[in-house]
């Protein structure tokens, strides 16, 4: 029986450790090419002519061990050389020429050496080069082993040719090789990511007929695949079967926290958050430790269902289980509370985010300010909170939206903070926002009540100078106030400006006469 294919985790290990004596040498010349030298064919004549199934199986001992420093050094240098090839030239043509030369200094002596080259091409995301180099394998008098086929399966998955990867896996199994579960998991994961759950199930069925068992990671990929295509009920059934049996993993639970996470996320997406919470409690009962992904899925589920307050409860539950909420956790809760108009709760979450040091999305902060202002018309205690949030936006140099500015001007006027209202109006002009007369009207009326008529007139001039549409109410308030103060000339100037703008004013005397009539 041939040894197993190296695991996917081995194939994806980092390869940054260097040593001084590599097994082979790589050299890039001025043309940015890689020099590769095959071994002398005469040295392999006897070996190649007597290859049998047993010899193929023995060749699987040349596996890629990513824990080995030499292996990591080889791959790092190969990867560097491959990626340094000039993009202006045809890389496939260059490597074909290199392989045909006899004076190159890079020697491929074993199938293990060849596998290193293939793996470097996969890591460099060069599937076309991979196919070209693989066709040159017979010229080196080498026979592909289990590791070679494993790398080929991964290459097909990388280039989105999962059907060919599946066919290759079945061929390998039929020919007596037994690839390990991690290699098959790569294929199952690729199939499920593309919604090909039926074909993923065919792989499971084929493995069962061969008497081979897969680990929990492969089943987790399948769970995600079923949830991805909306077949949540089947995912729940598979999860229950996983829980009932051990899956052949010695000393390991048949399910892990990622199994529950996949199904819970699927349930939350289809509006079944209560069922997801029951699964959460079940996972806790069997001793699994929840992670932030599970809690975030619950928060998103409750938010979608219009139950954002329960999302706040999940946020508190995270702390009870020793799981630190991240920025996504808080942002999701805040978004749900704002969406369903739970402003007080949203304010609490916002303040906690600021205290922790998380950055809050600008749009959500603007929404919070506007909602606080509107709610403060009924609950005046929230007005100070609106001022505070707005000032923090300006302190951080954030660009405040036009609608937010308009609402804040009104809020300042309602709170009799006319100086702040004037500052905001000037900010709107400075930022190039089109001005609305309704914003100025409230400020003008407030300033007039405080006897600050000159500042009120300046506001009207500011509106006019920046292309704002002058409103009759603004003119009437100012003209009447100026006349009441005995400043008839100023009032007449404004009256004339109004007529020039096509605005017909109604004087106080006319209004009183109409009432007597």
From TrEMBL:
PPR repeats lie at residues 145-179, 180-214, 215-249, 256-290, 291-325, 326-360, 401-435. The keyword Repeat applies. It holds the Pfam family PPR_2. SUPFAM superfamilies: HCP-like. One of its GO terms (cellular component) is mitochondrion. GO terms for molecular function: mRNA binding. Keywords: Repeat. It comes from the Eukaryota. The keyword Repeat applies. Belongs to the PPR family. P subfamily. This is Pentatricopeptide repeat-containing protein. It comes from Vicia faba (Broad bean).
